Amino acid sequence: MSSMEIDFKQYQLRCQLRGHEDDVRGICVCGSEGIATSSRDRTIRFWSLDSSDKRKYVSSKILLGHSSFVGPLAWISPDEEFPEGGIVSGGMDTMVFVWDLRTGEKVQSLKGHQLQVTGVVLDGGDIVSSSVDCTLKRWRKGQPVESWEAHNSAIQAVIKLPSGELVSGSTDTTLKLWRGKTCLHTFTGHTDTVRGLAVMHGLGILSASHDGSIMLWAQSGEVLMVMVGHTSIVYSVDSHVSGLIVSGSEDHFAKIWKDGVCIQSLEHPGCVWDAKFLENGDIATACSDGIIRIWTVDQGKVADPVELEAYASELSEYKLSRKSVGGLKLVDLPGLEALQIPGTSDGQTKIVREGDNGVAYSWNMREQKWDKIGEVVDGPDDSMNRPVFDGVQYDYVFDVDIGDGEPIRKLPYNRSDNPYDTADKWLLKENLPLSYRQQIVEFILQNTGQKDFNIDPTFRDPYTGANAYVPGQPSYTSGISAKPTFKHIPKRGMLVFDAAQFDGILKKISEFNSTLLADLGKKDLSLTEPEISRLGAIVKILKDTSHYHSSTFADVDIALLLKMLKSWPLAMIFPVIDILRMTVLHPDGATVLLRHVEVNDVVMEMITKVTTEPAVPANLLTSIRAVTNFFKNSTYYGWLQKHRSDILDAFSSCLASPNKNLQLAYSTLILNYSVLLIERKDEEGQSHVLSAALEIAEQENLEVDSRFRALVAIGSLMHEELKQVWFLQDKRRVETLDRSSV
């Protein structure tokens, strides 16, 4: 039998463990007791076998205490101190906690690391932890007893060998073997960060690396085997007494290996952060979609056909959403209906989706039609050596450190992209101030070698509708007019805040709901399970923007949001307002909400409530953005005009706020009002808005984005006055001609 002809039963899905609200980062197998998992949602969950269905697990404990995402875990077997066992956890918050599973409470808080804790392991009665601060620390009975700088770069993992030594893996690409604080050997062979470590029963040490490989080492430092098959970072590795090895990777696969050969790949709808063998040989995987999956070779434990089919469908949809053509996500491309909109300049290119393909069209200005260019395909070398982010290949994926203890953020970029457009969209996605725009653009240009970048003069700023500013270049105009034309004025169309972190919104609502449940005096305000499900359904509709033309809301959906706005404590309503902000951008959602507003003006009630001092900043920001989004739908124009004075007065305090996002939202509100009131020929309203815009423009210390929008509002209002002057001048000329002809 050759090495490829291995007698092996295929792993199949056994069950899915749902409960975490963000990426699942770590798995700890707790003997036969169950499984512990850690997550970016700051929690640890303990899962026990479901007594009613032995194929499945249920969440029996939730451990709360970390202030940032939780990573490594270790199991304390039951003893006198921990009758039901215990858990050791390490987090981004630099803390190591010890938990008693019987009570679900913290019994020790180990403080000493300066940066993220990346590994925890039991050594007799001691705990040894590793950290990005380059140190290993030994803790005994809650107190630090040893600490040493083990590597010159961040330590990513630590394990204990059966023989008693410790092994650490580091960003410096090495492994080190320790007896006490003495380094016995340094293992070199990887070409990038060593991310995960495991003991290979009876053979040696396994290491997983950012270089995409898994290595098996003898304790002497000799490389016994190299396993290559993943196409991206390998985060974790584990082994079973049967000789099987499992690894988890950024490439969305958990791979199973035997004798150095990959014998099965388990595909996931996201990054696989961790993979562990259970004692019986089943495999648990932790995925970035927040779900833990158990895989088995036991046919009696395989999930039922309905669940298997549902998972296959989920994978198919996920892969379709990540499919790209010419560096563009297929799912993000508009359909053929986009060709009904005329182009703005001769030769303008537009790519639309036709079936499973992207097809390029060019605007023919003379014939006023779109000419088909052809199908967009990736070049032969496009997929080679290009980094992947969210399942899509890019020319570059930069690590951006914004400081303040925040995690490193990924910035994807293609050389064909406009860096200003990329910067704007990325800042909005990451919820960062647009004032960082120039810094991000310069960062992109510097790191891509595009020193002589030329801005396309047809580029339209997605936030102002204006062209990119090119120093020393004339303003770009199309067409000729007898009257003067200007680059930014008069402003046409409304600006909205249409980006939302829906998962974060739902997570925050869930946190607040748990708080209400725990408070006997406010328990009746909490959401029921059906209401939580309905809230999830609302968000699902809002996420699916491609079906806004056909999806609908029920009256009870909007009624639920309004009920929460009215009844929940003031400090807890900002995530609800944020859902409302996005709902008004949905055609049917806006219509259903309007019916409620016409009966009982809950929106004005909300504005009054959130702007009454002392105001909660988060309430102010979400509510002013929500009101700004009302301008998207013309059915609200009458309501906005009617309440103009009350709305502007209520939010006027935002100008004095040090919060840059609040300042920008207020300026956007003013700009939208200027467009509306010019259209409605409301002179009194125009005067009010002009006064407010001038007040913004006079603020010297205001962010440039906020002042710019105020100036566009002023220019648009003044342009309206000029139009009146031109009209009167033309009228006098006509009257003069009429008199001279008599």
Automatic annotation (TrEMBL):
- Give the CDD domains listed for this entry: WD40
Q: Is Repeat one of the keywords?
A: yes
Q: Which Pfam families match?
A: PFU (PF09070), PUL (PF08324), WD40 (PF00400)
Spans of the WD repeats are 17-57, 87-109, 148-178, 187-217, 227-258
For this UniProt record, the keywords arranged alphabetically read as follows: Cytoplasm, Repeat, WD repeat
Q: Which domain of life is it from?
A: Eukaryota
Q: What species is this protein from? A: Hibiscus sabdariffa
UniProt-annotated location(s): Cytoplasm
According to UniProt, the name of this protein is Phospholipase A-2-activating protein
SMART domains in the cross-refs:
WD40
- Residue stretches making up the PFU domain: 362-458
Q: Tell whether DNA damage is among the UniProt keywords.
A: no
Q: Where is the PUL domain?
A: 487-742
Coiled-coil positions? none
